[in-house]
């Protein structure tokens, strides 16, 4: 596996086409739509320049897509029964960026580029624009013909225990290393007070704050999120560099400054805690793990979940509707 990942890293420099996860390959559109990646990148960059917070939105959009029905663009479908309207997805952002890119691509290369691939490429571009690492995205996904609101209820949750998080990731072929690495996407972005305020005042109905929260950080969070305040108020998931994609998120978790309970819990379990400590720079692992090198590997692996290729699925004309 490490050899495969090493080859993929070489592709970042050479640009050669190789097989990726699930029969995908880099450079899939080199003949059918040579400017596809350029157009998607320019579209993401134009929006990012106006609103840097969109980067986290696009990254999360791809993640939520892949965890339901695989990476097939099913998150983009509108309609009451679609996964887009499931409770865990109601705060998702970036749909208009994907639609904008799709409109341009349909005008240039009708029926060539899938919405699922636009999502995967836009997520990579969002990370790069946030000063994060780049990687060659294997493409060739086709769009799914099913979008299920009911299935989206099983997405990872901010209140999940490590055991539950592990089970949800394992069900998608992802291990502990992938779990911790992908959660590092919280290096950018924000969350609502609503999703973690219970940790500040009445954790496990004890009337006290979550004891894993750094006591010096607790008053700061309580000031931002009063007990009976506005639950929609936004808080950075990485208090030190919310617009920069880096390893400071793991340093915050190490120091008890994680915002979401599910993030902070990663430190308290032996296997996941060691990876957190490694990324935070507290220990030197056998591989000397570096977040900026490991994140692209995990993203390539995740973006291959249950993909549809060849004659499967379809290439949508509009990302929000089935053909």
UniProtKB/TrEMBL annotation:
One of its GO terms (molecular function) is metal ion binding. The active site is at residue 64. Residues 1-20 form the signal peptide. The record marks 60 as: Transition state stabilizer. This is Peroxidase. It is an enzyme of class 1 (oxidoreductase). Binds 2 calcium ions per subunit. Binds 1 heme b (iron(II)-protoporphyrin IX) group per subunit. Ca(2+) 2 binds at residues 238, 246. GO terms for biological process: defense response to fungus; hydrogen peroxide catabolic process; response to oxidative stress. One of its GO terms (cellular component) is extracellular region. Substrate binds at residue 156. Keywords: Calcium, Disulfide bond, Heme, Hydrogen peroxide, Iron, Metal-binding, Oxidoreductase, Peroxidase, Secreted, Signal.
């Amino acid at each position: 596996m490490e050899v495969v990942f090493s080859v993929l890293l070489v592709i970042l420099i050479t640009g050669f086409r190789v097989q990726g996860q699930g029969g995908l390959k880099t450079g899939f559109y080199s003949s059918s739509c040579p400017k596809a990646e350029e157009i998607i990148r320019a579209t993401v960059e134009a929006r990012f320049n106006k609103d840097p917070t969109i980067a986290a939105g696009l990254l999360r959009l791809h993640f939520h897509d892949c965890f339901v029905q695989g990476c097939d663009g099913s998150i983009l479908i509108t309609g009451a029964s679609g996964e887009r309207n499931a409770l865990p997805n109601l705060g998702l952002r970036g749909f208009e960026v994907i639609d904008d890119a799709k409109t341009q691509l349909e005008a240039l290369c009708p029926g060539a580029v899938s919405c699922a691939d636009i999502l995967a490429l836009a997520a990579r571009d969002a990370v790069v624009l946030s000063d994060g690492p780049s990687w060659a995205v294997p493409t060739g996904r086709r769009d799914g013909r099913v979008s299920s609101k009911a299935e989206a209820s099983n997405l990872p949750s901010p209140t999940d225990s490590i055991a539950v998080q592990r089970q949800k990731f394992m069900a998608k072929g992802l291990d502990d290393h992938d779990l911790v690495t992908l959660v590092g996407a919280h290096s950018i972005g924000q969350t609502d007070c609503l999703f973690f305020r219970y940790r500040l005042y009445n954790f496990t109905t004890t009337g006290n704050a979550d004891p894993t929260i750094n006591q010096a950080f607790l008053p700061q969070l309580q000031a931002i999120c009063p007990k009976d305040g506005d639950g929609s108020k936004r808080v950075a998931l990485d208090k030190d560099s919310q617009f920069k994609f880096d390893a400071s998120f793991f340093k915050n978790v190490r120091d008890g400054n994680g915002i979401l309970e599910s993030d902070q819990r990663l430190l308290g379990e032996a296997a996941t805690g060691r990876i957190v400590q490694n990324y935070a720079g507290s220990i030197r692992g056998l591989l000397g793990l570096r977040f900026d090198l490991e994140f692209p590997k995990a993203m390539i692996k995740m973006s291959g979940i249950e993909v549809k290729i060849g004659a499967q699925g379809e290439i949508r004309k509009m990302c929000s509707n089935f053909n």
